[in-house]
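Deviations from the work plan: none for this task. Representative record:
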Amino acid sequence: MDCIFCKIVNGELPSKKVYEDEHVVAFHDISPIAPVHVLTIPKKHIASAMELGEGDAELLAQLHHAIREVARATGVAESGFRIISNIGSDGQQTVPHLHFHVIGGRQLEWKA
Ligand code: 5GP
Ligand code: ZN
């Protein structure tokens, strides 16, 4: 499959990993918008949050566990951070492999 995040998962493309387990990998965004900007993704290809099903409940829990580990590893667990998952065209999703942006390390603004 021609998906850049699948290529990061299987090692075809390099990434700076922050966290990895059997089902999830997290790595620094190539174009960070804040001092901390990490992408947390399932290793399994899922196009977006719209493609999640009932069978993915455990995977979602694993993703959120990974996000907490990323927050601790990058030092934003106490200061706070934001989780964003863009979906589709209006959501400005550019990579069609489910990912959660973990953004922090500065005071964030709010409202899209
Ligand atoms: P989206 O716009 O789909 O919500 O987010 C995609 C994110 O992936 C963007 O923030 C973009 O900077 C990041 N990105 C795109 N290609 C690569 C890559 O090859 N490596 C890494 N680490 N991040 C990437
Ligand atoms: Zn993929």
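Residues 4, 13, 15, 27-31, 39, 86, 92-95 surround guanosine-5'-monophosphate (ligand 1) (CB under 6 Å).
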